[in-house]
Amino acid sequence: MSVFEERVEHRRLDCGIDLAVMEIPGRSVVAVELRVLAGYALESPDYLGVAYVMDEAIAKGTAKRDGRALNDAFDAIGVSHSSFAGRETAGFSCLCLPEFLDEAIALHAEMLRTPAFPRDACEVAVELSRQALAALDDEPLDLAKKLLSRQAYGEPLGRHALGECATLDRIGRDQVVEHWQRFFAADRMLVAVAGPVEAGRVADLFERAFAGFRAPTASTEIQPEPAVRFAPGRTHYPKDFEQEQVVMCFPGAAVTDADYPVELVVLGALAGGMSGRLWTEVREKQGLVYWVSAWGDHPRRGGMVHLGASTTPQHLDRTYATLLREINRLAEDLTAAEVERAIIGIVSQVQTRGDVTRSRASRLVDDLFFHGRPMALAEKVARVRAVTVDAVRRYLTAHPRDRLSVVTLGPQDLQAE
Amino acid sequence: MSTSRFVQLRLSNGLAVVIEVMPHVPSVACGFLARTGARDEHSALAGVSHFLEHMCFKGTARRDWQRINIEFDEMGSQYNAYTSKDRTFYYGWVRAEELERQLDLLADMMRSTLPAGEFDVEKQVVLEEIAMSGDDLSSNAYDLLYESLCPDSPLAWPVLGYERTIRELSVEQMRAYHASRYAPENLTLVVAGRVDPENVVAMAERLCGDWPAVEAGPRGPAPVLRSGVARRSLERFHQQAVVLAFPAAPGTHELNETAESIAAILGGSNSRFYWNIMQKGLSTQAAVFREEYGDFGLMVLYALCEPAHCERVLEAMRHEAQTLVEQGPEPKEVQRVKNLRRTSLAVEAEAPFYRLGQIVDDMEYHGQPRSAEERLAAVERVSDESIRDYLQQFPITGEGLLVSVGPRAWPES
Fold first, then answer.
1. What percent of chain A is predicted at pLDDT more than 70?
2. Is the pLDDT of residue B24 over 90?
């Protein structure tokens, strides 16, 4: 079997879960990635931050046991588990030895189906969210990214997971429960499992664990994913740091677009490795930065290309000018060798990371989210390998970079536009 | 747990070679460990190890920096390097068929010419990295911890060095440091993945066998660790970092896995710190981590909090440490930590890249790599008794070294 061939079974369970299972015999661990269509972009505007608070509170007890007992039960079978409040989904990740998969699924079902949301745990979650929001002031890059998202994406995709001080103040147990009731149901769940498992058996386990899972007031309507909007502009935020942060973005391709593999190659050519344009021109030739990068950000229905760098104030203008120059001239002088290197980087990473069971499950659950089905890896790789210099030029023409959304954060503003 | 096996040897010039054969994976990771870091530097050269790591990417007799970067990317490598207090490590993770090319490149970099023409540009990059570190609260706390803990030792200064020492450093000074510290006897080639070990040994002989054997020079003694209080007011931050450090077992100690368990019980996930400090709303981050070296160690209790919470956070950290020492662990705590370690060992065995880091630790502390089975056996030996025994030998009560960094000038006296 080629390294790009995978045995994946995909089915919609009777309980409503969209399940994909990748059977990888010989592995020592099983990875489960579970997403609930319940991200912070779907929050009520009055209670921004409630998805994050709910994520903090959901493991603090169930109908059967308190928070410590629940976490002890996970630990008793050596399950490494975590969760996050994402923009469009709530995520739950789990790694366990194969012999403990049944219990791990049962524990997740207990946590997701019957959370107790103790009042004191909700209050602590709100308090810690408030502190974390204030602590963002100590994280220059995270803060700059937050400000850029708000500026470029607007409502609701430009929100931050931690919400706002005023909205956090309004959140209590009732709002947490309401958020859970609105969105947590089996038919809003995407699940990917990878490891030494048998797909039919995994399906049975989830079917049993989540049969009839629908909170009393869960919405029966499929909530449409928010549309991606883009607002150009440039804003400077004064801040007493040693370095300036400069982050910017422009509209790119959605994951489902035919152009998406081309965008991956563009990002690879810009910042896929140390031979990438940004590293070469900003860091290696001029020594302007330690950190410079480019990355894609993809809500379900669209995409943005981001660039960022951090530099000391005396280098801000040159850094900014170099970033602009490089994204503009890419369409003119990109070489076939650069495209080839970007392609090799993408394909090679798929292969090496394929050794890691969790990365396979993550890729699979992303397929369910973006495409509604598992995508054949061989086909994805073939589409990347088919990208040419001409295709990149067409992409860059179709995605103009003359209207950027830019945020700078630090002691001084740009001197010249 | 795994089907891997080890091959270990030393070339005639002193270069150590360690290979983990992992037939169950399609990739391979490899790297060169240089047994040198901040603790091996003279004070006037503070930061030279880390700057040197940057410069090794800047040119060799056969490749300029562009060629180095292009070759890494042409083979689709996931590569990088890091420098710490006691080591510098260069690595790449590639498809198995690219091993020879990857090794050739990394070996060439170990003999970098440290081109003078690139020195000043890269110096600017390092100065940017120092500035970036200055904007990070945790980095400030970590630096003050070592500065106060062992002021008479090279361990006191930051791995990145100081702006002054980096500005004043010359390429000649760096070349002299490189010549001794990157001697073959001070380097280890580590390879893990789907490889034929005989092939790897042949490659190592061909690529590194003619490196002249020179003396690396001894490493300085273990530092004398101080206790007390150190604070630094940095008003630009919102949160306060509160750190409490105690001398701990070195990486070579037989109770090393026990020390790891203590850190997890006190400050891991689902730990005492999590429930009794974070879940009391006192801190967004409260954890315990270990600093391991061949000749000493540290147990570090750490929290980020609102400045107004400093007293309560410190009191809570001390209380949890005291309670563990006095009452010992609960049986379920010991068991849950062991269970999680089993899973993490299984995860680590999946990927050659994960294995590299562990092999590097094993070489430093045990002189040889350890199999997953050996490490699992060490995990199984952790018990209520071993924890009590460890805490007797390396107490985490008493004064310790308290470090506070943030907007509040605390403690006041």
1. 97
2. no
Tokens of A93: 């990740």
Size of interface A-B (CB pairs under 8 A): 189
Which of B137, B284, B332, B376 best probes binding to A when mutated, by most A CB atoms within 10 angstroms?
Answer: B284
- Within 48-107 of A, beta carbons closer than 8 Å to B belong to 60, 67-68, 71-72, 74-80, 95-97
For A243-279, the pLDDT digits (tens) are: 999 999 999 999 999 999 999 999 999 999 999 999 9
B148 and B240 housed in the same domain: no
Angle, vertex CA B67, rays to CA B64 and CA B70, nearest 5: 150
What are the counts of helices (DSSP H) followed by strands (DSSP E) for chain B? 15, 11
The CATH number of the domain where B310 resides is what? 3.30.830.10
- For chain A, give every residue range classified as CATH 3.30.830.10: 8-210, 233-410
- Are residues B277 and B197 part of one domain? no
Strand order in the sheet with B187-193: B5-10, B16-21, B187-193, B27-34, B88-95, B78-83
| CA pair distance A132, B284, nearest whole angstrom | 6
Domain of B344 in residue numbering reads as 228-406
Does the distance separating the beta carbons of B343 and A79 come in below 8 Å?
yes
Has residue A284 got a pLDDT over 90?
A: yes
CATH number at A8-210: 3.30.830.10
pLDDT at A13: 97
Residue B269 scores a pLDDT above 80: yes
Prediction ipTM score:
0.95
In a domain, B373, yes or no: yes
The whole-chain average pLDDT of chain B stands at 96
Scored b (16 or more CB within 10 A) or e, B275-301 reads: ebbbbbbbbbbbbbebbbbbebbbbbb
Q: Verify that B153 and B239 share a domain, yes or no.
A: no
Domain count, chain B: 2
CB proximity under 8 Å: A 134-153 to B: 134-135, 137-138, 140
Q: Does residue B241 share a domain with residue B370?
A: yes
The percent of residues in chain B predicted with pLDDT above 70, rounded, is 100
